[in-house]
């Protein structure tokens, strides 16, 4: 049943114009610091990363404030064509905290175990303005994770696509992509109502799954790969069960803790490399039986399990 409680910006049943988008932007607030939480810790590990053969590269900056929002990735300084190439992306939705801090934790605690076996590219926080304002959208009320396509309207997505293209053209293609996300209570309390208001459609309240799940590709499901990720993460945190319809967030559960999406047609980040070993992680930080630290560890476990699986196939 449709929820008739309407979002405070806009007119029910009418798509937002520039006036409504400007009102929405004016309603946002800075709530935490990208520089303190992400850039400073990243720069603090620069010497350690360099010793591992990894470098910090700036691949862009956000036009709303280029000095405040530089875009950084950690990248292998030398690529070996005999090794698989791995992309990790965090903070495509900036409000999804464990994606960002899970990527940082992987670099801090696990990257050293893999730099001799794989080429690495880690984009720690794709949407730093979204991180600071704890928001799903960018300043133009665009969802970066629905904008990975040619001539993208989201500069966060366009910048990451350019980074991927630069690696592909100069170094080699990607073999693995782990895109780190969360599903939170705020999805239903704020972000889906805002989406429906923006698009002039009714809001039907959904349910938030309690636990970790993974999203694969409808076109290339790679079931054993997804299972390896679920098995690895289950040692750290609980896996979301299917609901009474056998679904998670409206999609059929194809195996324990896994659903599939048509990634490319939806413009999702996990389609950006075109590799078949890709997954989108989803943790639930609002669970009464999970902690922020546990969610970060789950993200790390997803990355390492994905890499371990692909290495075992070679």
TrEMBL record:
Taking every annotated instance into account, which residue ranges of this chain make up the domain Peptidase M14?
A: 30-314
Picking any one GO biological process from the record gives: proteolysis
Q: Which SUPFAM superfamilies does this UniProt record tie to the protein?
A: Zn-dependent exopeptidases
Identify the domain of life: Bacteria
What one GO molecular function would you report for this record? zinc ion binding
State the family named in the UniProt similarity comment for this chain. Answer: Belongs to the peptidase M14 family.
What this protein is called in its record is: Peptidase M14 domain-containing protein
Source organism of the structure:
Shewanella baltica (strain OS155 / ATCC BAA-1091)
Supply the CDD domains for this chain. Answer: M14_REP34-like
Q: Which UniProt keywords apply?
A: Hydrolase, Metal-binding, Zinc
């Amino acid at each position: 049943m449709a929820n008739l409680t309407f979002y405070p910006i806009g007119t029910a049943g009418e798509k937002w114009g520039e006036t409504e988008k400007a009102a929405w932007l004016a309603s946002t607030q800075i709530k935490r610091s990208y520089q303190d939480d992400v850039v400073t810790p990243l720069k603090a590990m620069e010497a350690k990363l360099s010793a591992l053969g990894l470098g910090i590269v700036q691949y862009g900056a956000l036009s709303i404030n280029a000095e405040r929002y530089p875009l950084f990735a950690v990248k292998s300084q030398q690529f070996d064509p005999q090794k698989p190439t791995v992309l990790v992306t965090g903070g495509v939705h900036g409000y999804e905290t464990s994606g960002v801090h899970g990527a940082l934790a992987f670099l801090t605690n696990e990257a050293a175990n893999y730099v001799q076996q794989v080429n690495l590219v880690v984009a720690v926080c794709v949407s730093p303005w979204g991180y600071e304002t704890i928001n799903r959208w960018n300043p133009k009320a665009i969802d970066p994770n629905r904008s990975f396509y040619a001539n993208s309207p989201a500069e966060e997505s366009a910048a990451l696509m350019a980074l991927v293209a630069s690696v592909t053209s100069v170094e080699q293609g990607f073999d693995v992509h782990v895109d780190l996300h969360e599903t939170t209570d705020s999805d239903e309390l704020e972000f889906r109502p805002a989406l429906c208001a923006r698009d002039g459609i009714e809001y039907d309240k959904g349910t938030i799954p309690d636990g970790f799940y993974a999203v694969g590709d409808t076109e290339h499901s790679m079931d054993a790969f997804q299972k390896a990720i679920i098995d690895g993460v289950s040692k750290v945190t609980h896996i979301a069960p299917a609901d009474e319809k056998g679904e998670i967030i409206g999609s059929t559960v194809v195996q324990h803790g896994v659903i599939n999406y048509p990634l490319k047609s939806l413009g999702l980040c996990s389609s950006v490399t075109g590799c078949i070993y890709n997954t989108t992680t989803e943790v639930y930080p609002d669970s009464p039986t999970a902690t922020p630290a546990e969610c970060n560890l789950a993200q790390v476990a997803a990355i390492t399990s994905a890499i371990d699986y692909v290495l075992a196939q070679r």
